[in-house]
């Protein structure tokens, strides 16, 4: 594996490449592309942090834990809640800030705060020619090149290899409260999600954990802020949803939300793991139609599914729209394309973008079609 220590070395590696390159950060997401392995993990370190401006600049290989530790000292956080999939994928690497943005990793708080790409202010990256490019800025008001910054988030290194990212951070809330309903079916959970998200109580998480080891399912609603406000909003929401059984009211139930964020219920189970983005209103039909176990996030808009490895989930969705990604294929199981095939107009656009930024087709080739 090639591990450049700075941007100049990274550019030279790509410029001098004679074949495909398999690009990764901390190698925690189980993405294995044919080619010479190149990791950005040694491009590490926070280069600028301005707590008062709610901005940070870090090299792409900086460990997420380091970023989060520095932010915690100032009472701040990565509000998009990047996930740790090492347990789910069985990997041993170290999650990096560049990897979080390259995969647009966005946890339960997306329903309120937005996705990882919404916090990305600027990027430096090396394209497929070995040229160093930069786009965006270091302050929230700077929108120069805004679209290209967003484009790099979720491109999985296929358009360029991130070397540095600047991003927005937010204050960490004083208190987190969670309402927990046990044993609700998917239709009832959706009713809780819909009523909660349509309420004025600023919900920052709406998820459903499946039944586990004989324990009932858990439907979760999270509220955050000042403790007195959280307590008041929890009481108000309880009364609004009194058609169901009385929920448990928990303060600082971080373990539950970590389980949702990192898909912990499936990490020790054999089978293929799929991640589907759908209309929240379709969630009960989706769960009923797809044979397997399901963890629901984003108020019904995101469903993680544990399936038999011989099943292509996309063939079973029927009239249900959205898109599904094969996150983990079981060992020895049938291989399906990782990402949802794009409609022809989008495929043509994506092909044009790759030709512009990676004309030799060497950056994670075949990963995204």
Structure description:
By secondary structure, the chain is of the alpha+beta class. The chain has helices spanning 7-15, 64-73, 86-89, 97-102, 110-113, 146-152, 186-197, 227-240, 254-261, 283-289, 313-316, 344-357; strands at 21-24, 36-39, 46-50, 55-59, 76-77, 120-126, 132-136, 161-168, 170-171, 175-182, 203-209, 218-225, 248-251, 272-277, 293-297, 302-307, 323-328. The strands form five sheets. The chain has a five-stranded antiparallel beta sheet with strand order 3-4-8-6-7. Strand 11 (203-209) and strand 12 form a beta hairpin. The model is unreliable at 139-146 (pLDDT under 50).
Number of strands: 17
**Largest sheet at a glance?**
5 strands, antiparallel
Name the strands of the widest sheet in spatial order: 3-4-8-6-7
Shape: globular
Describe the structure in brief.
The chain has helices at 7-15, 64-73, 86-89, 97-102, 110-113, 146-152, 186-197, 227-240, 254-261, 283-289, 313-316, 344-357; strands spanning 21-24, 36-39, 46-50, 55-59, 76-77, 120-126, 132-136, 161-168, 170-171, 175-182, 203-209, 218-225, 248-251, 272-277, 293-297, 302-307, 323-328.
């Amino acid at each position: 594996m090639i591990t450049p220590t700075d941007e100049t070395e990274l550019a030279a590696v790509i410029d001098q490449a004679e074949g495909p390159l398999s690009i990764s950060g901390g190698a925690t997401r189980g993405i294995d592309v044919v080619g010479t392995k190149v990791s950005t993990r040694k491009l590490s370190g926070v280069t600028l942090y301005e707590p008062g401006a709610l901005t940070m600049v870090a090299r792409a290989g900086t460990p997420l834990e380091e970023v989060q530790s520095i932010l915690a000292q100032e009472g701040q956080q990565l509000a998009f809640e990047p996930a740790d999939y090492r347990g789910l994928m069985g990997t041993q690497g170290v999650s990096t800030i560049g990897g979080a943005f390259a995969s647009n990793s966005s946890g339960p708080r997306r329903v309120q705060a937005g996705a990882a790409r919404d916090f990305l202010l600027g990027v430096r990256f090396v394209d497929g020619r070995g040229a160093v490019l930069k786009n965006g800025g270091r302050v929230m008001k700077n929108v120069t090149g805004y679209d290209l910054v967003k484009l790099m988030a979720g491109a999985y290194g296929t358009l360029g290899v991130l070397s540095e990212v600047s991003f927005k951070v937010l204050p960490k809330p004083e208190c987190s409260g969670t309402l927990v309903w046990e044993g609700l079916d998917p239709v009832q959970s959706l009713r809780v999600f819909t009523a909660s998200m349509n309420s004025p109580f600023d919900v920052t998480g709406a998820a459903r954990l499946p039944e586990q080891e004989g324990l009932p399912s858990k439907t979760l609603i999270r509220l955050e802020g000042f403790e007195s406000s959280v307590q008041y909003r929890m009481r108000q929401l309880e009364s609004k949803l009194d058609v169901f059984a009385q929920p448990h009211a928990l303060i600082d139930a971080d373990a539950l939300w970590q389980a949702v964020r990192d898909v912990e219920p499936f990490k020790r189970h054999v089978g293929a793991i799929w991640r589907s983005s759908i209309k929240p209103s379709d969630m009960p039909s989706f769960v009923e139609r797809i044979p397997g176990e399901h963890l629901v996030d984003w108020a019904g808009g995101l469903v993680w599914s544990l399936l038999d490895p011989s099943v292509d989930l996309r063939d079973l969705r029927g009239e249900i729209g959205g898109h599904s990604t094969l996150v983990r294929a079981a060992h020895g199981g049938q291989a399906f394309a990782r990402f949802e095939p794009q409609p022809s107009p989008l495929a043509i656009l994506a092909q044009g973008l790759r030709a512009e930024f990676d004309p030799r087709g060497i950056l994670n080739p075949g990963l995204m079609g």
